[in-house]
From TrEMBL:
This is Proline dehydrogenase. Residues 22-33 have a biased composition (Low complexity). Gene3D superfamilies: 3.20.20.220. Residues 17-47 are annotated as: Disordered. It comes from Cajanus cajan (Pigeon pea). Belongs to the proline oxidase family. It catalyses: L-proline + a quinone = (S)-1-pyrroline-5-carboxylate + a quinol + H(+).
Amino acid sequence: MATRVIPPRILRNVSYNTSTKPLNSTHTSLLPTLSPPPSPEVPPPTSAVLPPAADDLNFQDLRKLFSHVPTSTLLRSTAVLHATAVDPLVDFGTWLMRSNLMHVNGLRDIFLASIRHTFYHHFCAGEDAPTAASSIRALNHTGLRGMLVYGVEDALDNEACDRNLRGFLRTVDVSRSLPPSSVSFVIVKITAICPMSLLERMSDLLRWQHKDPSFSLPWKQDCFPIFSESSPLYHTRSRPEPLTPEEERDLELANQRFLELCQKCVNANMPLMVDAEHTSVQPAIDYFTYSSAIVHNRVENPIVFGTMQTYLKDAKERLMLAAEAADKMGISMGFKLVRGAYMSSESKLAESLGYSSPIHNTIQDTHNCFNDCSSFMLEKIAKGPGGVVLATHNVESGRLAAAKAHEVGIGRVNHKLEFAQLHGMSEALSFGLSNAGFHVSKYMPFGPVETVMPYLLRRAEENRGMLAASGFDRQLMRKELGRRLKAAVF
């Protein structure tokens, strides 16, 4: 998603109301407000007085902002971000990695070596668990935390699922071996531990049951609402056949894998984040997430977190329905809010089936949805259990969420709230939020270059708009490099 920066001339005239206000049943918008002088009749909050959120995110003091970043890293980051902003270069790299040239001995090694020392090193944590652990330690010295991601893509059979599960379990072990709180979450992709064909079948069945509540799914466990009235159901155009005995066995194996991973996270007291995917399989992923949360999230701090992609038109409705159901069942639910990473493929699929895109019509609609969902979750966790991860590269959303957190009394360094950005992206926002006292994590995939390549290619294709919009980061990095050069010369 494109990053919108609030012009400094506007920010100078805008302050944020950071006092704690009574919460209504309907959530307020995540919007800046002009702060009136404090009323003498209203006493200040009993907690420590917090500075206005507009002052929290300081992007002017470059020395402080990039104080933990070596000059060599700044140079590489600037070069890589400039390269990813050039569409023809991204297109050529994508074509090259998928071409037959990658099967030519010698050329393949040259290509992989060049990628390893540029794009891979910039966006990934390392090729194995020990290297990833070292990257986490280095990141932690800068005041940031890590979300460890075993960088595998979709699994097609049970053998691949079992292999991937071992990788996710090792990730939990690595996280436990690191300094306390240096890893905020372990990430799992349900598409890596359950065959894709089964997820598609389950999603079809779940969609049909939403159309026809009398449609029986004997394998279905307790779950929060997966769909809203506005959710797209066009993927399933006819009544699907029940799961075959073989598919039911595969589902039981997938349940066992996820249960083993969840239990390991419970024992390690390590939150587990379930990544979101495209809408053709997301219903099944939500089913796994919610049914597991009902089992494991019966304490104040949730272990299992789901992901909501707010570029979808039904995101806000689904979030509120799931949160309400969790409250009624006494379940502590956590969500990661993202804008989304499948814009082009979702729109093409909908168009091919003769339906309108499930994606918001404008980028501003997506921004509004993300900010509204953030506001809703911040108000919710201020009143009770649960947690939220605001995964955004948008500077304005970061500012507004920081202001909202103060307004509802969450404050800074609160275990219920985490900001997050991709490793190698939006460094200024990450350090700005961290310097303001908030928990900030970087999403850090790891694994062999060949294994992580599908992840990198997907990021390059689906997030090219975000990569191209990294001008804010590049501009600040260039200024800091100039400042350091001037300081070294004079």
